Each structure stands twice: as C-alpha cells, then as structure tokens.
Amino acid sequence: MYPESIKKLIESLKFFPGIGEKSAERMAFAYLEFDKEQVEYLIDSMQETRAKIHPCPNCLSLTDQDVCDICSSPARDHNVLCVVEDPKIVFLFEKLGTYKGMYHVIKGLISPLEDINPEDIGLEKLLDRIKKEKFTEIILAFKPSVEGEITALYIKQILDGLDVEVSRLASGVPMGADMEYIDSLTLERALEDRKKIS
Amino acid sequence: MYPESIKKLIESLKFFPGIGEKSAERMAFAYLEFDKEQVEYLIDSMQETRAKIHPCPNCLSLTDQDVCDICSSPARDHNVLCVVEDPKIVFLFEKLGTYKGMYHVIKGLISPLEDINPEDIGLEKLLDRIKKEKFTEIILAFKPSVEGEITALYIKQILDGLDVEVSRLASGVPMGADMEYIDSLTLERALEDRKKIS
C-alpha cells in the first residue's frame, strides 16, 4: 500500500524502543516534510555518532576522544569511583553536576535467571582498575533490584581485603512521591534504612 | 556533557513530532546499540524516501512512480473522487481496502483565522481535474471542524452547475465509543444526522 521506501522507513523507525506502527507512520510522514537542512543534520549526526562514538578504554563510558573527558580531567576526584551498569547512567549523573569522581561501566548485572554470570559483565577489568588506581571509595550505583543486589554483593566480596570503602546508593521513597502509591518493597527498604534526624 | 555527535543526534531526533528531550535521549542510546544492518537499513530508507517520494502529478498523493499506482490502475473506479486534506489520509483509506475510487489531495483546509484562502490550497487544480475527468461523485473527506466545513461548502459552491454529486463523510458517534465521553458537538451532529432503521 505504501510506496516501498516509505514502507522501509516505517519498518526501520520501529527499531527504536517504544515506537510502534502508528508512531512510526507519524514520524515517517513528518520526516517527509522536514526541510533539507533538517534531513542533512539528522543523517549526518546518525553517521557521525556511529563513526566517532566508542567506549573509553579506561572506564568504558561513551566518548568521541581517545580517553574520555572524565578519565583525563585533572579537576575530577580520582579517589572515588562510581560503578554503573550502563553507559547512559554516566550522563544521568553528569547532568546532576554534583558528583566529581570517576566512573566505571560494567556490562549489565549478574542475573542467575538469565544465565548472566560475573565473567560476562566485565568485573575482572573493574577489579584490575580498582587495584591499579587505588580508589578510596567505590560507589555501586545499580538499579534497586534482585540483580542489582546480587551484583553489589559479589563486587563487595571480590574487593574484600582491599583497603577501600564500598557504598551503594540510598534506596527509599523518591522525592515528591505520593505515599499511597509507593510499593511495599520500597516502603520496607525506606523504613529499614531510616535516618536519624540530628 | 554528551559527546558532540550524541548531542547533535539528540537535537535532530527532536525534529520528530512528539519526541521530547527524554525520548530523544532514549532513542539516541538505543540507536548506538543497533547492529550494523539496522543502521544501514535506517539511513538507506531515509535517503531513499527523500530521493524517490514525490507528489503524483495527477492527484498529489505521495508516490515513487511517475504517476501513482491508484491513478494508473484500470481496476479502480475512475468515476468517484475522494478529496482529502493531506497525503497521509490517502493511506488511511487504502488501509481499509473498501474504497475503490480515486483520490485528490488538496494542501490543507481554508482557514480565515490563519489567513489560508481558497487559492492557497490548490482548489483550481482540483476543479480543472473534476471538469476534465468527469467524475459522477465527489466525496469530501475533511476532518470535522470549522475549517473542514468551510472548505467543503466552498468546493460545493465552485462545483455548482457541474453534473456531479457531492457528499461528505458521515459524522457522529465513533464505533465502540463510550456515550458519556462523547463531546456535545459530536452528539448534536449524530442526532441531527440520525438514520432511519429500515
């Protein structure tokens, strides 16, 4: 029904997460009405991103430099390391602008159910780096889930014996949340981790 | 904060309707994880669509042929013409698979408020075509709105004197709708246009 190239375009827009048939159709027709500059900017940036972006060899976050801006910055605190499960989490933290330490990206989380083992997510490289760079604190910033807990416990274990403090993100009631809509697991954790008001 | 090319990619994904900052970021990171074939398919289809798709010189719907498949098909009913305000509406009707006539696309609707006049939306070309191709029925398939009504009335007027039936889409309660959520204008129209059960 659609001309072949529009059909192909709709199919390929559906590669994006959350884009179904209707949204892809809407996007394809909008794309046909982009002006020439917009089309060039879009296709250029797509090609450029794929050509230039690669993992930083040191921390595995995404960069277009030989070594990423954070690893190579003398202004950052090289004593603290934040370990994240996905390169995009680095940018979430950077948006805050308050964290001044270093990062290390592992490839997802340990998941016995999905048969993802410690050796699959690059923990060896993490351990090597921690030994070499002598951090004083490691912050494990994984999502609060069974996999996050398992991975955090496993890392804590392999760091045993090294002179380094290991912490995890506080978990509890999100700011601004309506108490009645908080799930019981979150509430339980918030109660358990309650903080003394001093 | 983001590497330059990712920043550009996020900016350009926001050209699409309904894609804000968060969605564009999500799409950009997903894009970075596409495999090589997906990237090629996506960029190819984007380039191909822009190179090949153009308005059919006869009906102004979108095609990759000299004249579109519908205009050139002897299997279609060349006596009935459906006039739509946007090329994508043609594909909506084609998806139904029940309409077998021809189409004509005008460039939007007359809108006194937005200073869009009859001469801005290509009604002259429509009139020429109707005179030349001698249709027996013209179906005006505009969206139910003030602009749709004005445009329909205007077309009805300029066709006055020609031996052709002019109809518009039925307007009323959509199938499966919950009666309590129907707006009063729609309900009014549905009542006015009530059909005798025979």
Please, could you describe this protein's structure?
- Two copies of one chain form a homodimer.
- Helix content of chain A is 41%, strand content 11%.
- Chain A has seven helices and six strands.
- Chain A has two domains: 4-52, RecR Domain 1 (Helicase, Ruva Protein, domain 3); 62-196, Dna Topoisomerase Vi A Subunit, Chain: A, domain 2, CATH 3.40.1360.
- With 198 residues, the first copy, chain A, is of the alpha/beta class.
- Chains A and B meet through helix 1, helix 2, helix 3, strand 2 and helix 4 of A and helix 1, helix 2, helix 3, strand 2 and helix 4 of B.
Q: Number of helix segments of chain A?
A: 7
CATH architecture of the largest domain in chain A: 3-Layer(aba) Sandwich
Residue-averaged pLDDT of chain A, rounded? 94
Rg from alpha-carbon coordinates of chain A: 22 Å
The number of strands of chain A is 6
Oligomer: homodimer
Q: Which CATH top level class of the largest domain in chain A fits?
A: Alpha Beta
Task: Predict the CATH topology of the largest domain in chain A.
Answer: Dna Topoisomerase Vi A Subunit, Chain: A, domain 2
Coarse structural class of chain A: alpha/beta
Task: Please estimate the helix content of chain A.
Answer: 40-55%
Largest two-chain interface: A-B, 49 and 49 residues
Distance between the termini of chain A: 69 Å
Q: In terms of per-residue confidence, which ranges of chain A show pLDDT below 50 for 5 or more consecutive residues? A: none
Biggest sheet architecture of chain A: 4 strands, parallel
H and E string of chain A: HHHEEEHEHEHEH
DSSP strand (E) fraction of chain A?
5-15%
User: Outline of chain A, from the CA principal axes?
Assistant: globular
* Integer tally of domains of chain A: 2
Strand order of the largest sheet of chain A: 4-3-5-6
